[in-house]
């Protein structure tokens, strides 16, 4: 709504498109290229301006919620979680959409405030499967750990986390740490390795010990996929 829709008017948000963009076609997993769906550079710029405006609009509404909690003296008794299910390419790699393990779609915000817990910026990977065990633990609710794939982030950490889109011959799978990731695309029967972001250069090399380690983990994860 106005005036938020004008907040970033004229701001330059340049999409991320590496020179070898076409080599990532198997990772993009959609036909929604900006050319195919008729999004001109000007229209894309407008979309990105509005996207950032939406984020600022949401931030403002969150501040209204926290102010209301404080006014009602409920803030110090409230757990607050801010996260998302996925991102969007928004013109990166000349594409739109979310069906990819590229950073713009798979790296999401995860903010957690628990009364009594100190402020901490974490770099270890987390996953949405961690939400339930973390919140149950924070509330002191007993649960069967065998029923959950996630961990209690207040007292535990992951070395790596996994993500998956579709399965079998159409599947895309990812194993990610806090600083690198390995992705497998079944469509192209190809692995991709990235250790800098946004994803700019595929460094997959099976002789690299780190790549080999992640490949063992990801292959085991894919072998267990029964969806």
Walk me through this protein's architecture.
The protein is an alpha+beta fold and 227 residues long. Helix content is 27%, strand content 12%. The chain is built from 5 helices and 6 strands; from the N terminus they run H-H-E-H-E-H-E-E-E-E-H. The strands form 2 sheets. It has a 4-stranded antiparallel sheet with strand order 3-4-5-6, covered by helices on one side. A two-stranded antiparallel ribbon has the order 1-2. Strand 3 and strand 4 form a beta hairpin. The protein is flat. It starts with 24 loop residues before the first helix and ends with a helix.
Helix content: 25-40%
Distance between the termini: 41 Å
Biggest sheet descriptor: 4 strands, antiparallel
Order of helices and strands: HHEHEHEEEEH
Radius of gyration over C-alpha positions, nearest whole angstrom: 20 Å
Low-confidence stretches: none
Please indicate the percent range of residues in DSSP E strands (runs of 2 or more). 5-15%
Assembly state (oligomeric): single chain
Gross geometry: flat
Biggest sheet: strands side by side, in what order?
3-4-5-6
- What number is the mean pLDDT? 93
Number of strands: 6
Structural class: alpha+beta
Number of helices: 5
């Amino acid at each position: 709504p106005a005036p938020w829709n004008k907040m970033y008017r004229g701001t330059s948000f340049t999409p991320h498109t590496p020179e070898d963009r076409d080599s990532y076609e198997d990772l993009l997993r959609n036909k929604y290229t900006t050319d195919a769906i008729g999004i001109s550079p000007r229209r894309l710029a407008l979309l990105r301006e509005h996207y950032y405006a939406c984020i600022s609009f949401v931030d403002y509404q969150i501040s209204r919620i926290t102010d209301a909690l404080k006014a009602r003296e409920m803030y110090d008794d409230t757990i607050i979680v801010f996260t998302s299910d996925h991102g969007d390419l928004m013109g990166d790699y000349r594409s739109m959409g979310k069906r990819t393990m590229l950073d713009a779609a798979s790296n999401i915000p995860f903010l957690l405030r628990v009364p009594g817990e100190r402020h901490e910026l974490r770099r270890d990977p987390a996953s949405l499967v961690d939400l339930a065990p973390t919140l149950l633990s924070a509330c002191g609710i007993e649960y069967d750990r065998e029923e959950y794939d996630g961990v209690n982030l207040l007292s535990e950490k992951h070395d790596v986390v996994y993500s998956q889109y579709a399965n079998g011959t159409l599947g895309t799978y990812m194993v990610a740490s806090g600083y690198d990731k390995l992705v497998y695309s079944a469509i192209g029967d190809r692995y991709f390795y990235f250790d800098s972001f946004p994803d700019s250069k595929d460094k997959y090399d099976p002789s690299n010990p780190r790549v080999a380690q992640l490949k063992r983990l990801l292959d085991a994860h894919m072998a267990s996929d029964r969806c």
